Amino acid sequence: METDIKQDLLSRVEQALENIRPYLLTDGGDVKLIEIDDDHIVQVELLGACGSCPMSPMTMKAGIEEAVKRVAPEIKGINAINVE
């Protein structure tokens, strides 16, 4: 990806995570952006309670993925590196 395009994408994804972060923090969790690869797959790490919560897959799909794709529709998927 070109540097400016990648930086814009990173910025939009970070903003989406900032928007959902207060909901995660309420439950003792958080999320950290690890990278966006050249195939437009976002890698995140779920932190705190989110890393071990049985609802993490639902949080990923309905919360984090929805928020990210709303601001960055070119994102093809989101994976949490520490969730099965």
Helical residue percent band: 40-55%
The value of Rg in angstroms is 12 Å
Overall pLDDT confidence = 90
Q: What is the SS-derived class?
A: alpha+beta
Portion in beta strands = 15-25%
**Helix and strand run:** HEEHE
CATH topology: GMP Synthetase, Chain A, domain 3
How are the strands of the biggest sheet laid out side by side? 1-2-3
Secondary structure: number of strands: 3
| Tally of separate helices | 2
CATH superfamily: Fe-S cluster assembly (FSCA)
CATH architecture descriptor: 2-Layer Sandwich
Q: Using the coordinates above, name the CATH class.
A: Alpha Beta
Tally the structural domains.
Answer: 1
Distance N terminus to C terminus?
A: 28 Å
Principal-axis shape: globular
Biggest beta sheet summary:
3 strands, mixed
Contiguous uncertain segments of 5+ residues: none
Task: Explain the layout of strands and helices.
Blueprint: H1 3-26, E1 29-36, E2 41-48, H2 56-71, E3 77-80
Parallel strand pairs: 2-3
Antiparallel strand pairs: 1-2
Helix pairs in contact: 1-2
